[in-house]
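Data availability (excerpt). The following record was deposited with the supplementary files.
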Amino acid sequence: MDGPLEDDFGREVTGVRVSLTDRCNFDCVYCHNEGLGDTRGPMEPDDNEMTADDVVRFLEVVAEFGVGKVKFTGGEPMLRQDLEEIVRRTPDSMEASMTTNGTFLPGRAADLKDAGLERVNVSQDAIDPEAFAEITQSGAYEQVVEGVTAALDAGLAPVKLNMVVFEHTAGYVEGMVEHAANNDGLRLQLIEYMPELTGHPEWNIDIGRVHDWLDDLAARVEHREMHNRTRYWIAGDDAEEPIDESNGGMVEIVDPVENPNFCANCHRVRVTHEGYLKGCLNRTDDLRSMGEMSRDEIRETFRETVANRVPYYGEYMVRNDDGEWIVNDAYLTRSTSAD
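Predicted structure:
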């Protein structure tokens, strides 16, 4: 096994995020890829989606380069009925995790755990059913709650709840924080809204205000230098001092916008459901097809993708005079000239 590949900015690539489908049974108002395709339930992959063999072949190849983590995403990855097979066939050297909306976890969480899934993130943007329905354009609140319970029962703790913080959800942050603090096995990730992905800058809120509120509320605060993230430990109603992970709720803010440390310490590349490698969520100009998925093609494409990564999307993306995020043509010109 070779060591991890390193890009031109000194970042080793040790993880991959693999989208298994662009279909989703939710239609969240903030999502840059709204619910698409046939979403009746788990089914075989669509013609434009990688097969289980394609996914596994890719993972086996990048494992040769020291990639030790894979996160399966979508769309909604659990719309793939072969998800358990993919997880089971993931190389033993890789930690397998998943981001899901949780609606299909009841009845499948235990099988996924048995197949080798180690962690799960569940998207939950409100603790109130009506608010949840408004944000996700679905009536699946109870299914999501049952899905979180199923994941905990299956031994996938801690379950991270992902909540995007923007105009529509800001009023529900307090309730979600209390929910995480008072329920064992839950962690809460408050994710900064990225208006450049959705085209609605007017929905943005000042994430700094959330930091300040949590700083006042928390019994203990930790700072993670790697991604310049802050973790807040919130005491539950019955918690006793000192507060730690055994008796408190952990809330972490993921704030990539204007945070150079976030991208400077990114060690992941992404794979689209169609089998294209890309160096960053925010880029679509660097898509590289893995062809017919031969191992040699995957190796070469993986090397090219790592070599083409950008240092920080604050250089790749800039604000225009109206405050909107746009591609920085000057950066692209410099990159092309450098090539």
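Summary of structural features: The two ends are 29 Å apart (CA to CA).
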